[in-house]
């Protein structure tokens, strides 16, 4: 029995399938470094949005509160992140440790290299359309 056409063409189901495939591949590349794609995203958000409250970082990278807390705890236990009080507005903020900054530098190089194989089967126009549509559907 085959799937009904409306399920085959469902944006949600196809997005979930694509997301899982991309996450599996990304996590496999990052495994030797002891981090996941979500943690890479969090490290980058901390570096490139300094002084942002923790919950603002969660919104930037679309992490729910539970996932954010779990990932921050893991990154902090690895010595990559530290949480500090922001005295200006009494909010908690995070900063990368020296080790976190060094690791992120290495990960960003690896991440840029890992994008090339993803582009082998699609055109730059397809990639641009995918990103534009994905961002629109994500509310951004």
UniProtKB/TrEMBL annotation:
Single GO MF descriptor: DNA binding
Limits of the HTH marR-type domain: 4-139
Lineage, highest ranks first: Bacteria, Pseudomonadati, Pseudomonadota, Alphaproteobacteria, Hyphomicrobiales
Keywords from the UniProt entry: DNA-binding
Domain of life according to the entry: Bacteria
Signal peptide positions (record): none
Protein name: DNA-binding MarR family transcriptional regulator
PANTHER family: TRANSCRIPTIONAL REGULATOR, MARR FAMILY, TRANSCRIPTIONAL REPRESSOR PROTEIN-RELATED
Organism in which the protein naturally occurs: Pseudochelatococcus lubricantis
Pfam families assigned to the protein according to its UniProt record, in alphabetical order: MarR_2 (PF12802)
